[in-house]
Amino acid sequence: MDLKDLFRSIKDLENKEVTVRGWIRNHRDQKTFGFIDFSDGTCGEHLQVVYDDTLKNFSEIQKMLVGCAIEVNGVIVKSSGNQDYEMKAVEIKVLGNCPEDYPIQPKRHTREFLREQAYLRPRTNLFQAVFRIRSVAASAIHEYFQSHNYVYVHTPLITTTDCEGSDQMFKLTTLDFNNLPMIDGKVDMTKDLFSKTSYITGSGQLHGEAFAMAFKKIYTFGPTFRTENSNTKTHANEFWMIEPEIAFCDLEELMNIEEEMLKYVVKTILDRCSGEIDFCDQFVEKGLKDKLTKLINSEFVRITHRDVVDILKKADVKWEFEPDYLEDIAKEHERYITEYFNGPVFITNWPKDIKAWYMKENSDGKTVAAVDLEVPGAGELMGGSQREEDYDTIIKRATSMGVDLAVVDWYLNLRKYGGCVHSGFGMGFERLIMYLTGVDNIRDVIPFPRTPGNCEY
């Protein structure tokens, strides 16, 4: 029986015999009896197993160490200890031994140490909570989009489309680096598997737009890859992205969707992961539960980039990076603006020269219809835009930014063949999990993090 099911119906199981399988998290053995802290990973709660010397393999049980996989057959009884119920063991079997040098002992380990034990860290309370929240958040994202008539699209991981800039994308090749085919001093890419330069995707957006022009509303949810040599707490070279694309949708409607979707996911986590949120509130980020509750009851502010810079320039703050009307805003600015409005903030209409070539140019000729969502405590959580739907305009914009039109001709043609106003956004899944758990390092919300100098396991 799974512990999650056991605890759901534990009152009905009182004085009944059940069998559970899992691992020893702690073991206190006495002369004639002992206590096992038992967990099977299906929930955050642990079961106390009590045994005594009436069991025929009592001496063998006393030698069981932390980490052992065991099967316990026992009776659920009222407890005289801190917990309401416990199991009085009838039989305990060892299914998998564990030696004394097992690294995950019943004490607090630093997160840095646990990163070095990434294959074992899911057995700790913190990572049990984090990855259970991650699982439910993924489910909630699918639930939201599926319930609103979106089609889930698996966009390619291998692509020739340079969406994010090839300097940020991993190149893919089957060529032998020790014997490269050369023509006029350059590598002959026609000899490669795909006969041209190809990449591992940095975004599913462009392919997603093709499907949005057929299904009206689609979303992608999958791994993406970037080559940034960044060792910050918020960057990784492999991460997951959620990228909806919506036809007949302008920037205002896009913000409505972003707000509604985020509130749905946060509320789902509060409802379904209450124990995990309480754990993170106590041991990771004090006030986490209040922060999340406040978000779902907030009205998200909408303000232009220019107006944000006005506020920042008037602020009585000595900035490390001076706010600029033609530049991006820094982390310190994101933090200030969410504190200024005491809640989430949509920042719209960004300078066109710092944004991507496919974004809708505004009538002022200086800005594009782009939007970033800033949330308290985490900064930017989502980024999106209304996409340029006019064929001639996007050709001119792409050319001015040095985009190879031959590579994206299919994408540009979407404007010729029944194109329409459309918009989309991207949300880094790990950024969301950091926000939901209070964990401040992206390496601790990915099962096996891939960051510069780190590709273990």
Task: Tell me briefly what this model is.
The chain is α+β, with helices and mostly antiparallel strands and 457 residues long.
* Tally of separate helices: 13
Q: Major sheet: size, sense and barrel closure?
A: 8 strands, mixed
Distance between the termini: 31 Å
Structural class computed from helices and strand pairing: alpha+beta
Q: Which strands sit side by side, in order, in the main sheet?
A: 6-12-13-18-17-16-15-14
Topology:
Elements: H1 3-8, E1 17-29, E2 33-39, E3 47-52, H2 58-62, E4 69-78, E5 85-96, H3 111-115, H4 125-147, E6 151-152, E7 158-159, E8 170-172, E9 182-183, E10 186-187, E11 198-200, H5 205-215, E12 217-225, E13 238-247, H6 251-272, H7 274-283, H8 288-296, E14 301-304, H9 305-314, H10 331-341, E15 345-351, E16 367-375, E17 379-387, H11 391-400, H12 409-413, E18 422-428, H13 429-437
Parallel strand pairs: 3-5, 6-12, 14-15
Antiparallel strand pairs: 1-2, 1-4, 2-3, 4-5, 7-11, 8-11, 9-10, 12-13, 13-18, 15-16, 16-17, 17-18
Helix pairs in contact: 4-6, 4-7, 4-13, 6-8
Describe the overall structure:
There is one protein chain. The chain is an alpha+beta fold and 457 residues long. 30% of the residues lie in helices and 26% in strands. The protein has 13 helices and 18 strands. The strands form four sheets. It has an eight-stranded mixed β-sheet, with helices on both faces. A five-stranded mixed barrel has the order 1-2-3-5-4.
